[in-house]
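At your convenience, could you comment on the folded chain following this short note?
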Amino acid sequence: MPRPKKRRRVSGVPPHRQFGPHRKNKEAVAEAIFLSVDEYETLRLIDYQRKTQKEASEIMGVSRTTVQAIYDKARMNVTTSLVEGKNIVIDGGDYVYEAPKAYRVKTPGKTKHDYASESETVDIGKKPHGATRIVISTIEGEVSHIGEAEDFKVFDLENTSIINKQTTERPDIPGGFLPSFLKRHDVDIIIGAEMGEKLKHHFDDEGIDVFITDKAYPEDALSHWRRSG
């Protein structure tokens, strides 16, 4: 029986998930090359932070030879993208997200993941008793990919009637921290245009329901959610 594959620890969630060549005449985009999140992590640690492969292996919780193999594949993918003019999409991989030390807060008897001070500048406010709190991810007022949101439209509903709504800026924290941040603000449901599978798992872990919509504007997306129920 093969030994179970060890999941790689990742502490740097990609802030952007797609990159590609500039095309003035908007010709058809070439088939994308997928770069896994753990491949991205080796590039971030070794090329960007200038760590050795041994240091990177300790951070990721795998052997040095494993890191070297992931790193070699990552560089080949990036090089192929540059030479062949193909888009890069960062997604997938066999990894588990681990909060960097800067995001950890020690409390008596335990250590818990928390956020850098930037998140504390964003306060959604207390949810009314008995209400359902729904957040819609937006960019410039339109419904966006949940992991790439710039702002959140927050609706508090009593049954299906809106009793409070507000717009709040997304805190300057990695996407992997959004579920925990929103859970702290009593969010029950998040609505957006898309969401990566890994981020969805984080929302599932926090008990926040995810609803994907094809609507462009928050109020239409909220109506879409109402009709779906």
